[in-house]
């Protein structure tokens, strides 16, 4: 009797199970890896890059074959939503946005205020994640999306999809993901910094020159508008204040760069607000970092090199500060530092989240350089003159 009741209970429970009748099978999707947003003739233009995740699995397992191919779709509309739905209509299968890795804005799209609207859409959309990186460009978005990485590696490991690996080797312009973009535009000084993409031909394949992506500029966005595009020479002084800085080279001077090459790493920075008696806000900046000598042509002393490296870094920082200050760009986030350290004073002096930046706002800048292993444990060249 008990066995009959148990069997009856199992049968009834089985009838209540929903099963997998409404499940979406992964192989039936097409997967969007990146989105591009442009603005032309009063219309929003949307590009979507589709990649084959099956080829990615083959690459990781060691199977042969090309893994860098992608398809790029294009559609336009009066709004971003209209454009993306127009693109949906051309797809054979459902386009899945849960694996989005990057978003590229054209200069025109930024100028018409597209950043916040797109960020809001992507943040609300249930499929997307915060781990997608934002870029700006004035080159063709379609051409950028069709560029294959060097060595024919998967597009999932490209500079757009996975920018941190490249940044850790040369920490110049830090990647900005969705979470960081929202924070930057919402908190003082309400300014975001996006890596600026350029199409380059510095690499060559067996069949000729190869297109590759170059990041040597940064786009500064504030109040949902494009404020400026800063060159490498201007951005050099800002890299050491980036929290994620790992390592990069430092240039001493045009004359000295032919004689010596210096790598800086293991950086620590401390920015402290100082309130003068008249209520003026100024800042003390302290930088502490390690340096390695990568190449040297003649005998040098430790103290002389430390002094030269410190002077070069100080010159970079001041050059960056004075140039960006004139454009009303708070590149060192001094406003945010005061906001967090002394909110009462910040409320008194701020205007739209930004405090006044003047010629002497940086009260002091100290650079502490520690020279580490130069490769031969000495600051002398391997080859002597005349030998």
From TrEMBL:
Protein name listed in UniProt: Ger(X)C family spore germination protein
GO CC annotations, alphabetized: membrane
Location of this chain's protein in the cell: Membrane
Domain Spore germination protein N-terminal as annotated: residue spans: 22-197
Keywords: Germination, Lipoprotein, Membrane, Palmitate, Signal
Top-level taxon: Bacteria
One BP annotation, GO: spore germination
Keyword Lipoprotein recorded: yes
Signal peptide (from-to): 1-23
Residue span, Spore germination GerAC-like C-terminal domain: 217-374
PROSITE patterns to which the protein is assigned, alphabetical: PROKAR_LIPOPROTEIN
Location, primary (coarse class): membrane
Species of the source: Peribacillus asahii
Family label: Belongs to the GerABKC lipoprotein family.
Transmembrane segments: none
Methyltransferase among keywords: no
Lipid bilayer topology: Lipid-anchor
């Amino acid at each position: 009797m008990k066995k009959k009741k148990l069997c009856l209970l199992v049968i009834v429970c089985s009838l209540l199970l929903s099963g997998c009748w409404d499940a979406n099978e992964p192989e039936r999707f097409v997967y969007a890896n990146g989105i591009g947003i442009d603005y032309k003739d009063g219309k929003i233009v949307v590009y979507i890059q589709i990649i084959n995740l099956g080829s990615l699995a083959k690459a990781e397992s060691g199977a042969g074959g090309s893994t860098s191919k992608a398809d790029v779709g294009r559609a336009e509309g009066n709004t971003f939503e209209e454009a993306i739905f127009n693109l949906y209509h051309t797809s054979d299968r459902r386009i899945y946005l849960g694996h989005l890795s990057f978003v590229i804005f054209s200069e025109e799209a930024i100028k018409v205020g597209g950043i916040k609207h797109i960020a809001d859409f992507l943040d609300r959309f249930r499929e997307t994640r915060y781990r997608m990186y934002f870029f700006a460009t004035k080159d063709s978005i379609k051409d950028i999306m069709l560029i294959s990485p060097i060595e024919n590696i998967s597009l999932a490991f490209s500079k757009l999809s996975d920018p941190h690996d490249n940044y850790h080797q040369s920490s110049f312009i830090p990647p900005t993901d969705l979470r960081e973009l929202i924070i930057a535009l919402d908190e003082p000084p309400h300014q975001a910094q996006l890596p600026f993409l350029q199409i380059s031909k510095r690499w060559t394949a067996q069949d000729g020159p190869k297109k590759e992506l170059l990041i040597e500029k940064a786009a500064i966005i504030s109040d949902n508008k494009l404020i400026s595009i800063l060159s490498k020479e201007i951005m050099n002084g800002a890299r050491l204040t980036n929290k994620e800085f790992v390592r990069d080279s430092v240039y001493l001077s045009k004359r000295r760069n032919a004689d010596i090459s210096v790598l800086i790493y293991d950086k620590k920075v401390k920015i402290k607000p100082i309130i003068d008696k008249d209520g003026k806000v100024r800042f003390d900046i302290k930088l502490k970092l390690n340096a390695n000598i990568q190449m040297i042509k003649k005998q040098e002393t430790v103290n002389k090199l430390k002094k030269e490296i410190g002077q070069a870094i100080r010159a970079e920082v001041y050059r960056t500060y004075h140039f960006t200050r004139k454009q009303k760009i708070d590149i060192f986030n001094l406003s945010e530092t005061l906001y967090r350290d002394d909110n009462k004073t910040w409320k008194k002096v701020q205007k739209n989240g930004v405090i006044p930046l003047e010629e002497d706002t940086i009260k002091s800048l100290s650079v502490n350089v520690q020279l580490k292993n130069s490769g031969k444990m000495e600051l002398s060249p391997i080859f002597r003159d005349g030998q």
